[in-house]
Amino acid sequence: xxxxxxxxxxxxxxxxxxxxxxxxxxxxxxxxxxxxxxxxxxxxxxxxxxxxxxxxxxxxxxxxxxxxxxxxxxxxxxxxxxxxxxxxxxxxxxxxxxxxxxxxxxxxxxxxxxxxxxxxxxxxxxxxxxxxxxxxxxxxxxxxxxxxxxxxxxxxxxxxxxxxxxxxxxxxxxxxxxxxxxxxxxxxxxxxxxxxxxxxxxxxxxxxxxxxxxxxxxxxxxxxxxxxxxxxxxxxxxxxxxxxxxxxxxxxxxxxxxxxxxxxxxxxxxxxxxxxxxxxxxxxxxxxxxxxxxxxxxxxxxxxxxxxxxxxxxxxxxxxxxxxxxxxxxxxxxxxxxxxxxxxxxxxxxxxxxxxxxxxxxxxxxxxxxxxxxxxxxxxxxxxxxxxxxxxxxxxxxxxxxxxxxxxxxxxxxxxxxxxxxxxxxxxxxxxxxxxxxxxxxxxxxxxxxxxxxxxxxxxxxxxxxxxxxxxxxxxxx
RNA sequence: CCGGGUGUAGCGCAGUUGGUAGCGCGCUUGCUUUGGGAGCAAGAUGCCGGGAGUUCGAGUCUCCCCACUCGGACCA
Length: 478
Fold this sequence. Notes:
Elements: H1 17-27, E1 31-33, E2 40-42, H2 44-63, E3 67-68, E4 74-76, H3 77-80, H4 84-90, E5 96-100, E6 103-111, H5 116-126, E7 135-144, E8 158-168, H6 171-191, E9 198-201, E10 213-220, E11 226-236, H7 238-242, E12 247-248, E13 254-255, E14 258-265, H8 267-276, E15 293-297, H9 305-318, E16 323-325, H10 332-341, E17 346-350, H11 352-357, E18 359-364, E19 370-374, H12 378-403, E20 405-407, H13 411-420, E21 424-429, H14 433-443, E22 446-451, E23 470-475
The structure holds one RNA strand.
């Protein structure tokens, strides 16, 4: 079906994807700029999306035995410096507190860019015996990183996230935790956010400062660029040694515990926008949409229409649907365009003609398809349609991912693919840093991950031609 | 951090060789409308991004900041 463009204010994504993205963030009232670069205001509609993401993840964390905690936002410089790789990774983007009131502080405090060091300091105090393990903590908070360039949701100086930090008696247990959390992220993104992911392991170059291994879920945006959706790290016992965290084992000997951390941020919202949005604006996955169904009375001045619409609204709410009604005096066309721009999954219309026939009209945001539903089947049909919208969105995103992932044997092939089409280049890699750097230098791509589901797609490294046994994805990342 | 572009009403913009600020949309009120961004009428809204300078006089010229935006570098 040929879709007419109804929203003049939003730039077409084919014309200028970056501008389209910014337009959607602002016009859908997700975000506003503040007076400080890189610090954004989450408006009610944008924050509500985050609240629904939080709710869904928090449930999953708790089901798997994690507990929420809250640690301070300031880190003394001496504490941050306890682990060498870690401080090297983060120091360049730290913001510092140097005054308390009018007094200069003895030691400056970093505003947390991540909280590994604080958790370690605390864990050293509360872990003594094997009976104290595992410790499965999670924190919802904001962190601060002094980024040079910023974009709504994708790169903030201050952003909201969750950071899980866990300690385990054995490396095997910690690795299992790392994998479990990666799977929770992947499951959440696919089944709630309708975003297909590639699960994989980061190369040494791309892994977290101080980690032994970093796992990631990579997504493909509409412009075929990659977005890292979430990461899960295995630390070994490196931090535990640096922070002197020890416990007495069943063997009555001292051991260092093994650590993990894992996080996702409000960046996921940027991912949702760029995965599902279209030229009419936002398209929200039904399971996190703040409003799942908007009820619109048509010709509401006519007798009985408003009552009929209110009845629909109340029935939907009673059925557990996040529903709202717009009975403002805006025109029908205005309302239709407005809720399309805001990405509301279903629009439920009822007017005099529908009332005569005992039906209402439901329009899907993802496909624009309209169906007439007998009023007696309202709850049942809305539930079905919400699932159908989710499935439709997932299928479209999956198609985008699969159609733009290409197996390449040579660097020229990758170069041609990236220039003409763009997406993920799937190749073999020898594992050498030099080859990774060369790909960046000559093709402009970075390694996204080595997928957990490895396939042998060739014999030799895409870059140096030596024998290679790792399959890896390359792409341009946000 | 480096390069290009842009900051004038809520939003989008115009503003001439320097002479004291305008248009469209939106907003408010009233009436008429209402099945895909309605019509008429009457209103309200400006530290011209900030600071310094040149000038009798600066939205306009000069310098310095700040922010946005597009590239690049950087970026668990």
